Amino acid sequence: MNHAIRADKFLLDADRTTWHDETLWFVREKRDRAVYAVPEFQELRELASQIKDHTLSRLDLYLQEFEAAAQANGVHVHWAADAAEHNAIILDLIRQQGATRIVKSKSMLTEECHLNPYLIQHGIEVVDTDLGERIIQFREEAPSHIVLPAIHLKKEDVGDTFHLHLGTEKGESDPQLLTEAARQHLRAKFLAGQVAISGVNFAVAETGGVVVCTNEGNADLGVNLAAVHIACMGIEKLIPRLTDLGVFTRLLARSATGQPVTTYTSHFTKPAAGKEMHIVIVDNGRTQQLGRPDFRASLKCIRCGACMNTCPVYRRSGGHSYDFTVPGPIGAILSPNIDMKKHRSLPFASTLCGSCTDVCPVKIDIHTQLYKWRQVLGEAGEIPASKKWSMKFMGRLLASARVYGLSGQFARQALRLLPHGLTHAASFNAWAVARELPEPPKQSFREWYQQQPKSVPQPQTPQVTV
Ligand code: SF4
């Protein structure tokens, strides 16, 4: 099933689509206000972009520096080539502790590796402690946004879910009451957690420490209560020095939600006395993307979600329509690298308007990369035959002024004479499914232009009398 078909399902509920669109646009506007309040924001973007470019160009060296510094801090470092290795390492660590109960803060990497189902299948209780993540975990859904995982749900949906799983009153949808119910429920899970798993926003090569940004403080609570902390990070999370961190923390929250900074920016550098800390460093296709010069800049992503909030296609098709852990414009660049065949429709889920590129805090040329993926997919034969042949046909038609003029005449006549049901039939004209075609004009601009007088009147020079 391709993106357009999945988006069609989302669009069936017109009210929800409009609400989703407006809610994310509200976040985008908040981002704009936060950005305009920082006069040096563009300089920060440029600096962040250069730091990430530099780090990616020496990633092997920085990874080794990070590993050595982390080990010197008493942290165990593990390397995973892919999702299967990542999951096996974590299960092994949990079993070594004899643990059966895990608390986990938000980590898109563990979503990417499908860690939850893997651990549950092996008899481990996994509790997502981020509120949005817990809601979708109850509903057995995937996150639809990387920062706002349950943004596709209304408060009434959350009320129904909590009634089912937490026993709140039927029909209760007051956000304050629902949040309090989740708080009480999660507090017990935090206290029972034996191992805490967290994601990583930034890993500092110089110190060997990792930085986790949350708004709920759930990562801190989980890590401080459990005997073991396992932090999972992709290889691209590195920054060279601790002094670089401020550049990114100033950009991240402003771009994500319009906040000046995330509520909690927590540094985990070494295990507390009597406890263990592990870091699992994961590749899972990232070195392959690093080896693609046209797409390596996508590894600069700091997962702020701004490109999703601004994207007109994402806002009106919903995160689940991408069927990939990271949806939206950046997901449409990352996903074909993982599985070109499965995700071949995603680079086409864009108007190429460039709004994603404009808001990206690390200056990734997102829309250019989307356009490049289309070419790569074309060359790899991963474009549907109907699209390939229609593009060839259009190429011929647009290459000849005469053929173009004749086809325009034909189309105007056809639109005038054919019945509405035929010109707007879904199988024949998908564009017109949700739109009315304009009245065909009597003549084209070209025909009108040819009828105009050929001589162009010269501007008159004003007479000057001295
Ligand atoms: S590509 Fe840029 S805008 Fe999109 S999530 Fe990543 S950092 Fe944010």
Automatic annotation (TrEMBL):
Pfam families: Fer4_8, LUD_dom, LutB_C. Keywords: 4Fe-4S, Electron transport, Iron, Iron-sulfur, Metal-binding, Repeat, Transport. GO terms for molecular function: 4 iron, 4 sulfur cluster binding; metal ion binding. Gene3D superfamilies: Alpha-helical ferredoxin (1.10.1060.10), NagB/RpiA/CoA transferase-like (3.40.50.10420). PROSITE patterns: 4FE4S_FER_1, 4FE4S_FER_2. Transmembrane segments: none annotated. The keyword Metal-binding applies. This is 4Fe-4S ferredoxin. It comes from Hymenobacter sedentarius.
